[in-house]
Amino acid sequence: KKCTEVIEQGKMREYEVGGLQGDNKRWVVLHMFEPFLSDADVTTFLRRYVEVKSGPFGVPDTRKVWTGKRRYEVELRRDERSPDGFSHPPATFAIGSCRGYLYYWNQPEFCRKCRRTGHGEGECQEVNCGKCGARGHSTRQCPVKECSLCGNTGHLFRQCVKRSADFNRAEH
């Protein structure tokens, strides 16, 4: 109660009071270098991996200029196969041709080779594709084409019906 009063007075505004039961809650910072990719598209992508509770909130620099970073409050989904019991979003990704990075507290190590958590690219022993599961090629060379926004096969980002209307109008 005392912490809540201090926060309401405008102090400690960077902190959040929470219980001990929500170990799957995180503040995720997502950094995209493409300024014209809409918040709606970024949020649609993020929802493939986590439950978005609030956001996006722009993260400005010391001069109040937007840095390309968005902050979200999320809940990780349960995954019994994972060492910590949660499914984690990828640390590096692309939405269409736009590259992005994602980081948060207690984030497990992420392998860019097999696209799985728990180890880095240098220690990766994966011989199967991280996307389709087939042997003989890496995730980067996978012939299976899927939409980087919604994750479905059969179309790419440019044709995705889940893209924000603003971005579609700007392209045409």
From TrEMBL:
Keywords, ordered alphabetically: Metal-binding, Zinc, Zinc-finger
Gene3D superfamilies, sorted: Zinc finger, CCHC-type
Pfam families assigned to the protein according to its UniProt record, in alphabetical order: RBD_ZCCHC3_2nd (PF23058)
Residue ranges of domain CCHC-type in the record: 129-143
Xref: PROSITE patterns: ZF_CCHC
InterPro entries linked to this entry: RBD_ZCCHC3_2nd (IPR057811), Znf_CCHC (IPR001878), Znf_CCHC_sf (IPR036875)
Family annotation (SUPFAM superfamilies): Retrovirus zinc finger-like domains
Molecular function (Gene Ontology), one example: zinc ion binding
The protein's name: CCHC-type domain-containing protein
Organism, as annotated: Lepisosteus oculatus
Origin organism lineage: Eukaryota, Metazoa, Chordata, Craniata, Vertebrata
